[in-house]
Amino acid sequence: xxxxxxxxxxxxxxxxxxxxxxxxxxxxxxxxxxxxxxxxxxxxxxxxxxxxxxxxxxxxxxxxxxxxxxxxxxxxxxxxxxxxxxxxxxxxxxxxxxxxxxxxxxxxxxxxxxxxxxxxxxxxxxxxxxxxxxxxxxxxxxxxxxxxxxxxxxxxxxxxxxxxxxxxxxxxxxxxxxxxxxxxxxxxxxxxxxxxxxxxxxxxxxxxxxxxxxxxxxxxxxxxxxxxxxxxxxxxxxxxxxxxxxxxxxxxxxxxxxxxxxxxxxxxxxxxxxxxxxxxxxxxxxxxxxxxxxxxxxxxxxxxxxxxxxxxxxxxxxxxxxxxxxxxxxxxxx
Length: 334
Hints:
alpha/beta; TIM Barrel; 8-stranded parallel beta sheet; globular
């Protein structure tokens, strides 16, 4: 422990599959290098975008082995380590820590919805047994929610619990967590997993994001983070409004995370098909959305000049001025 808090943009990377639906190890290695070269601050394998529930424990372990080996310490790894029960989760945590991962992310119990006391007990047992730092993963769409009181209790009672990845998109919830926990633990970090609110979350004090769009446009998410760190909020909101339609398009395509696979394909990374089959109608809809994503991506300089400065959107000055005015007005109103 006593390591610096995680910060910046971590990519919950897609898991590449070959034509037989098996892990494509060579493609994963190349994709890891590309993401790091494009400026992501860290990697988050075995997350929701990586479809961790669709792989076996052995496959999940292999993913971490490859990512850790290919990364070679260039950026920290936050490894998804959720398994179906406490013992298996503890085993995965210790294995990933031994492979060099900075921390593990554990989703709250899923399938069986637990009350807050049950969520606390679950994380407390894991945190007391593991040899690696633990990040809470709040994604109420798929799992038992982690409320503010539970986050505070775990931060106070468990030194191994060092942060939270929150994918609720709930800005007041994030503010309440920060206000309750940060005075108690200055080493506790807050990451947002909701790309549509990346700038507002950073504005209120989040340390970074675990953003699926960074697996497609790492230049843009990096530029957003840097603008926020420089407190250039006008530029940050301009870029956020460029990210928003991309996120909406990729999130809303057929079955998650198909849209992010399509986005990566446009960037030159054919990462294969998900293990969840699509109907012909869904595949057609995904093809249409892929065309829309391609249209949105074509507005960025980095699509035409790979070595140009990160995330310079090609937008009319009048449009930029209008966006900034509207955003600032919304911020004042709210």
